[in-house]
Amino acid sequence: MTYIIIIIIIIIIIIIIIIIIIIIIIIIIIIIIIIIIIIIIIIIIIVITVVVVVVTIITIIIIITIIIIIIIIIIIIIIIIIIIIIIIIIIIIIIIIIIIIIIIITTIVVVVVDIIIIIIIIIIIIIIIIIIIIIIIIVIIIIIIIIIIIIIIIIIITIIIVTIIIIVIIIIIIIIIIIIIIIIIIIIIIIIIIIIISIIIIIITIIIIIIIIRSRSSSSSTITTIIISSSSTTIIIIIINIIIIIIIIIIK
Questions:
Q1: Which of 9, 137, 207, 249 sits between 20 and 30 A of 221, alpha carbons compared?
Q2: What gap in Å lies between CA 180 and CA 40, rounded to an integer?
Q3: Under the phi-then-psi rule, with left for phi > 0, alpha for psi from -120 to 50, and beta for the rest, what region is 213?
Q4: Which domain of life does the protein's organism represent (predicted)?
């Protein structure tokens, strides 16, 4: 009966030790997971902050660029309008001079040839005016096309930059998730190994105790059996065996 009580006590002690070890490991694992989560949150906050800053800078650059482009367009349009007005004024002055010359010529000499020449000159002047206006319109169209192309290029560059940033963020998050999964798998494996080792320790201890009980006829053989059986186990089992030997010696 005494031996049964000793066996039960020893088994209970071993189980308690194992439970304490498992609890300590679980606490350590929980602390590690909390630290990892905090680190991940910090990384995500930093990444989001960086993205926000980058996007803000890009937006400011785009806005400033568009404002500059609009100002340039307005200046160009004003210059073109001033040039057109000057050209029109010059043309009007030329036409007025021509008309005055025509009137003077027709009043002095009424010749059909002179009238034809004057008409040709007027036609040439009109053609020149039309050509100048067409050139001005073409220049304006080219300027507008160039401005549109610049704006499109800026927008495309912005989209590319933002896309790259988003891809980088996604990659970072995926890497973090993979790391967490690997850590959790490792933790689970460690816990399983600990549980298996604990079960093996319990089984080996019970076997040792049974051997001790059966060979209690001689103390020396008991001690030898325990030492022999202990030599193939871990340090924990050796310590437990030593405790068992001491208890048995005290009881005997």
A1: 9
A2: 9
A3: alpha
A4: Eukaryota
